[in-house]
Amino acid sequence: MSLYQILFYVFASVAVLAAIRVVTVKNPVHAALYLVLTFFSTALIWILMEAEFLGIVLLLVYVGAVMVLFLFVVMMLDVNIAPLREGFIRNLPVGVFVALVMIIELALILGPASFGLDIYPSPEPAPADAGNTLAIGQVLYTKFVYPFEIAAFILLVAIVAAIALAHRRRPGVHYQDIDAQVRVRAEDRVRIAELDADKTRRGDVAGDSKANQDKETS
Amino acid sequence: MITEWLSPVIGWMSPSWQYFVVHLLLTLVIVLPIVVAVAYLTLAERKVIGYMHVRIGPNRVGPRGMFQPFADVFKLMFKEVITPTVANKFIFYLAPVLILVAALVAWAVIPFDDGWVLADINAGLLYVLAIGAAGVYGVILAGWASNSKYALLGGMRSAAHKVAYELAMGFALVGVLMVAGSLNLSEIVRGQEGSILHWYWLPLLPMFVVYFVSGVAETNRAPFDISEGESEIVAGFHVEYSGIAFALFMLAEYASMILISALTAVMFLGGWLSPFQGTFLEPVFAFVPGIVWFLLKISFLLFVFIWFRATFPRFRYDQIMRLGWKVFIPVTILWIAVEGAFFYFEVGPWF
Questions:
Q1: What is the ipTM for the molecules in this complex?
Q2: Of the four listed, B16, B27, B34, B199, which is most buried by Cβ atoms within 10 Å?
């Protein structure tokens, strides 16, 4: 068995096992971590298939950003597992039915009859200097530039909408104006008072501080 | 070349297995010096900060304290490793390993000299970004698995600020990608050929500053070390770790400092290129191998890291968030637009 095959079987079996553990494990944080492992193994398989751009972007977006936020939320939640596990037997027939329908539908399309080697011969390995990134970039910004830009715009609208929905203005909350804090000068905070050590002139100093107090109250 | 040297030993294997063995050895050639460099970086940090504080720093172990890192390592190795009884044991010990792996694997794509790179892949820049993004996990998991309030708070704060600064770093790298026209780190260095003015620090000056400062934030170094803010949450995410497990966190922190310095050197300071290129001094220094210039640049940036720590007080959490989201990200987006204009008018030698 070649190194390539060994790597493929290792990554593929890890991906499948981790995916099974995502739904069977009890602790939600462990489930999220198994999902990370699934993404990671899938990304490695994609890289083996010379789709290095997709593989790395899968790591960057899903492992690096989405799952971090996921973990963040799951860790903060104090989920009581017991109520979630109720009704397993009651819902089992529906679940089995949906799963069977999905498997049958997939079997109709996928499988050697429509994707076998005689229909799609295994592709020639690309030369070493061929870049998946370059190939994707070239079609993304020429042939598919409108769908790409429209998808980006839809995502932007979704972000704005999410912020608009979640944003609320709470009256009476004090925020620090950091710009004002940064702009502050020493003169605004500290006043160097010239205090004379001579006690006979104390009256002057007291009068001075009183005058200051008057200024502050006004 | 190395494959030919080793052919008497590994010649019986198939080519792909030979490739595997040779690259395993090359990995050791990269990782072992990094570990030694980490040991001496801790000493350098204590010495430099010492002199900045008008102290001497460690000077007891060996001549002028030169063996202090080994004393520290042996002390940490022989200390008892305490596992909190309520901790999630597997994840508790997985977390420091994850951080360390993230700090070491990115070295695979760093070019040390022309052609001296373990994996000369076309998507090198993306790979670096993806590995950096995966580095957050160690901190969050360490905080969560410790099952301690301080650790959890430290982990959460760290996750939030790392995600914020990763975005700024990513945008800064988009700027580099635009000028270089390649994601391959060796190609990026070759694009800076010419003179010190051809290096990308000049056309990308705001990006350079944003990238390096975000790098300081990414590695949890002062003044961004809120994840382990001693004065607020004792030691943050690694408060429950002791002995060698704690040492792994320190190893990872210093290894990622060296990594950020190396990446900054590659992308903005011309990597292995000589700073005297294009001047009359170029033939004088022609005998210096490229890796020496590269290591000098890394050392300078590491000195800046330590200098920051000795100079600035710790940022407050809301100030860190403001700097990341409201200053750095807008600056990088603006500069990408400015770069577009540079391209259109073909400014300078870079575009």
A1: 0.80
A2: B199
